[in-house]
Amino acid sequence: MADLKGTVVTWLGHATVHIATAKGTSILIDPFIEQNPKFPKNYKLPEKIDLILATHGHGDHIADLVSVATTHHSTVVGMVELTGWAQSKGVKNAVGMNLGGSWKYEDLTISIVEARHSSGIEDGGKMIYGGEPIGFVISIQDGPVLYHAGDTSVFLDMQLIRDLYHPEVAMLPIGDHYTMGPKAAALAAKYLEAGTILPIHYGTFPVLTGTPAELAGFLEGSGIEVKALTPGESLR
Known about the structure:
The structure is a single chain. The protein has helices at 59-62, 65-72, 80-88, 158-165, 182-192, 212-218, and strands at residues 8-11, 17-20, 26-29, 51-53, 75-79, 93-97, 102-105, 108-114, 120-123, 126-129, 134-140, 145-148, 169-173, 196-200, 225-226, 234-235. By secondary structure, the protein is an alpha/beta fold. The chain has one domain: Ribonuclease Z/Hydroxyacylglutathione hydrolase-like (Metallo-beta-lactamase, Chain A, 4-Layer Sandwich). Helix 4 (158-165) links the parallel strand 12 (145-148) and strand 13. The radius of gyration is 16 Å and the shape is globular.
């Protein structure tokens, strides 16, 4: 498994992930909590959440974005259209970005990379444009490079993510139906050449049928480790 050098990555079910760096920066990705059937019942969010990263506007990724950002005084980071919407809902601190851009915060650099999906925001019974769907590369000073793919299919330009950022841990959706399934995720893992894959976005709802065991089967002999966590469990 990749050496995380004091960084702790905790999977909270679906695509929700908490990252704590060795120097104390606290990051929450795609907060889906109250309506998430896989969110660990005994888990309590940290008091300090510096950043909330939002990959796209679907409810199973941002349902709790505004409430968590407001409660924890967090800065929301994402596509400029999505962060603008968050600010219209009362979020005070936001950093709107776009594809290819990077932003430095404390001991890390956040880079926006593409994803293949959609990104409408349901708001008051209407669907509004949330900007392009994205993934995040999180490069931690004196620590690992992490990649959260958001919701996506496999795409050949994942090799550019490899060449530009060299992620050591990749968080990839495997559920199928709305994202890539295990076979495509295995190809994504090979394109990225990350040593460790954390499967996400599976098993939350019956339609998300892909499993970590299937992913591991497609990666057998590749040298890439599939680290399947239970919700609330961490990579350390």
